[in-house]
Amino acid sequence: MNARLTRRDFLREGVTFIAVGIAAPAWLSALASADNRLRQKGQHLPNDRVLVVVQLSGGNDGLNTVIPYTEPVYRQFRPTLAVSEANIVALNERIGLHPAFGKVKPMIDAGHFSIVQGVGYPNPNRSHFRSMEIWQTANPDTVEATGWLGRYLDTLPESAHNPLIGLTLGRENPVAMTGRRVSVPCVASLEDFKSLAGEQTDALRHLYALHQPAVAPVRAAALKALDAAERVRAKLNEYRSAVAYPNTPFASALRQIAQMLAVDTGTRVFYCSTGGFDTHAQQARTHATLLQNVAEGLFAFWQDVQAMGKADKVLVVMFSEFGRRVAENGSQGTDHGAAAPMFVLGSRVNAGLIGEHPSLTDLQDGDLRFHTDFRSVYATVLERWLDVDSQSILHGKFAHVPFFRT
Amino acid sequence: MSERERIAHLLRRAGLGASKAELDYYTRLGYREAVEALLAADRVPEDYSQLLTHLQGDSPQLRMPHAKMWWVARLLTTRRPLQERMVLFWHNHFATSASKVPRAELMLRQNETFRQLALGSFREMLLAVSRDPAMLLWLDNHLNRKGKPNENYARELLELFTMGIGNYTEQDVREAARAFTGWSLRPRVGFQFVSAWHDDSEKVFLGQRGNFDGTDIIDILVKQPKTAEYLCRKLFRFFVHDQPDPATIRALTRTYFDSGYRIGAVVKQILLSEAFQSPRAVRCMFKSPADFVIGTLRAMGVGQRLLPALQGNAIPIPAIGILRFADQSMQRMGMNLFYPPSVKGWDWGQAWVNSATMTERIRFAEAIASPQGIGRLVLADLHSTLAEDSLAVPDRLLERLCALLDVSLEQTTRQAVLQTVRSKTGSGDPVAHISVMLKLICSSAEYQLM
After folding, report:
1. Residues of B in contact with A196 (CB under 8 A)
2. Residue B349: closest CA among chain A residues belongs to which residue?
3. Do residue A281 and residue B147 have CB atoms under 8 angstroms apart?
4. Which of residues 341-380 of B touch A (CB under 8 A)?
């Protein structure tokens, strides 16, 4: 039996003693003893629900995702891009899904997929970058250095000990996951990450022992990588999913999230993105492929989560920085718009459509008007799912949106 | 700082790191002359005209992997390092991704435009970029037509290329889009103005009224104080640090206008400024993946050794291997050349350093320090480069390697390295010592700064 198996077994058995040398990460022993104390009292761990946030980058065309297919103005505004009624995956007699998004339908029928319509914020910003920042920081008024998920993670006591309290799949960390106190690791692939741990770790830990302020961020990043890599390596040895995921980068990110869920890394928030939604020209085929990748990826992930018996523990929330202009442009594409639907996937949701589709006749500068502030969706997730007061995280009180079953 | 240290700083920031030979050369010139020499890139003869054909080899079509290797080869071997650094700047500023540009030639053509106009007039640069096929395809302006304008290019021109967000209205975006209608493409030829698609009616743009076309919009934009400020600030941040004081930016914008929008004049003023040499600047900038990968390989003399191999008809496989390795390493560290993550380019500075990218930097260090694979090529001449007397004494060897890699390690880091060397390798094997040291130096926190 090698050292890392022993260490993992210590965790599993709840043995509190771990030899602490210079190279032993502090979180490991702290976590082990905390877990053990709770187990001895016969308690379950505190709220162990997980949030997965999916970002659709570039501005998803919400109007061609969740479609008011019987409205004549829809076809007038979209002479080349309107989806024909015959191909619509109908949800009711007025609203239906883009056929490429069809894999969402069985999840709705199972009572697990909710579509929150008409989401946005006042004075919509049509810059990708500013609007994305607004969604991630949950602050349309001023530029803020922390994000809503980071501020949530700041409230968790475990964040002091668990280097994987949050995780971004990808090579860059969004501001959404940055807190005042917490900064989460990001990882491009768990396999790469694992290769970091092992016999070389001690030498590297020694290397980063210095405290010169100029290099502090590097040191923090490297140590975070080592801590997280060790935890991943200790946990992730045998698990293989039985579900076949599509062969896309998005599905691969979701598969890795499922792997982490399966082995209980204690991660509370996962973040991943998929891009290409900035469809200014010849949108039809591109958008269909994108929607298909998203729907099929989520479908596989949800099957996997159900198979491991964690459907009650996982909620997925999906958003884009804005919708697109109602009228298509001259290049069979659409320019930057405003309000759009958000999507929520989980076993306790009110499946199907929440709220009305925004009017196609009462527009604002050619764009759909929002009726539900995105921070209301966040507030609902924070309070109803993550069980935390949303006011300080969102800098204000926002009405809940009824996408959870009561 | 000694003159040599000042020059080393200059070459880290305005060059691409330096081998010992390069540092010697520029030090002999003195600081001011070194700046002049870097700016006068075209005085250094350079010929990469055959390289692309050779890289393409038997492949019937030029593809992006060839284009990437070509640029990486230039970055590794150029003797005009400031010019190449400016190509990186412009690639990031006018960030265009090959993901939406169907032909590799067009990405290379844009890359050459950046190179030719790298330090020239910003007005000319904007005109060239507005007519550049890759850009026209990337931001859909080739489809921008009268009556049904496509706003994509006009918006990013205002938001990211000239004035910066917050300095114009949504109406200005829509009016500029109308002015650029008809700026299109003819397949296999390039830019084409199609007057039938152009909306010649009146526009109101930034308070001015006229039957503007794209050139008029650019002429209005380059004269805006906000454009001058946006560009000068971005250049200052690229070369110096993140917090220029207002007086410095004012002085740079004056130069921008006085020189007739010359980028070279602004860059020269930055490199000769006190701020550039200040403690707040020196060794306080996070290395980008290009600085880290290209800088390391150049410092180790890999660029110099590669040059003759790239000049023959048949490029040796190990040389191709190095180019691929460098490109893929940068990609894994978050900088996929020719594929910026969005039209905003990459987030520079501290954003380069996170757990995912540090993992990759450590893996890179491991690869080049390994006696097998790519490391064998990288380490090839290292023994002869290092003086004989240093090999047997770990302290001295570490000092030499640090000088070679242009890094200054903290005392605690030095001790950590030496301790690992002692515990992991036998006492007298300099090859093993070099390997362990190189890996740890390149992984160190200090080495991630420049």
Report:
1. 359, 362-363
2. A217
3. no
4. 341-344, 347, 350-351, 353-360, 362-363, 366
Domain total in chain A: 2
Q: Is the pLDDT of residue B95 over 80?
A: yes
Cβ burial A195-227 (10 Å sphere, 16+ → b, else e): ebbeebbbbbbbbbebeeeebebbbbbbbbbbb
Contact between A187 and B283 using a beta-carbon 8 Å cutoff: no
Instruction: Check whether A22 has a pLDDT greater than 50.
Output: no
Q: What is the DSSP letter of B160?
A: I
A309: containing domain: 47-394
Same domain, A28 and A54: no
Over 50: is that where the pLDDT of B349 sits? yes
Q: What share of chain B is helix, strand, coil (3-state, %, to 5)?
A: 65, 5, 30
Residue A249: inside a domain, yes or no? yes
Considering the domain architecture, whether residues A11 and A52 belong to the same structural domain is answered as: no
**Would A23 be classed as within a structural domain?**
yes
Evaluate whether residue A402 is within a structural domain.
no
Nearest by CB to residue A221, choosing from B145, B283, B353, is B353
Same domain flag for A5 and A107: no
The answer to whether B169 faces chain A, any CB pair under 8 Å, is no
Asked if residue A401 belongs to a domain, the reply is no
Give the tokens for residue B289.
């993946």
Q: Cβ of A207 and B416 within 8 Å? A: yes
Closest Cα in chain A, distance from residue B222 (Å): 21
Coil/strand/helix, residue B289: helix
Q: Residue A12: what pLDDT? A: 34
Token digits of residue A332? 């069979």
B170–A207 C-beta distance less than 8 A:
no
What are the sequence ranges of the domains in chain B? 3-222, 289-448
Query: Which of the pair, A30 or A308, is modelled with greater confidence?
Result: A308
Q: For residues A7 and A65, state if they share a domain.
A: no
pLDDT score recorded for residue A18: 32
Residue B121 is classified by DSSP as B
Instruction: Tally A–B CB contacts below 8 A.
Output: 160
Do A39 and A54 belong to one domain?
no
Does A27 lie in the same domain as A133? Answer: no
Residues in chain A: 406
Same domain, A158 and A31: no
pTM above the 0.90 mark?
no
CATH number, domain with residue A298:
3.40.720
Query: Between β-strands A96-97 and A66-67, what pairing exists: parallel, antiparallel or unpaired?
Result: antiparallel
Q: Are A19 and A159 within one domain?
A: no
pLDDT at A245: 96
Among the partner residues A130, A188, A329, nearest to B165 by beta-carbon distance: A130
Q: Is B440 in contact with A207 (Cβ distance < 8 A)?
A: yes
Residue-wise pLDDT for B375-416, tens only, equals 888 887 777 777 666 777 889 999 999 999 999 999 999 999
Helix B225-239 vs helix B246-258: angle between axes, to the nearest 10 degrees? 110
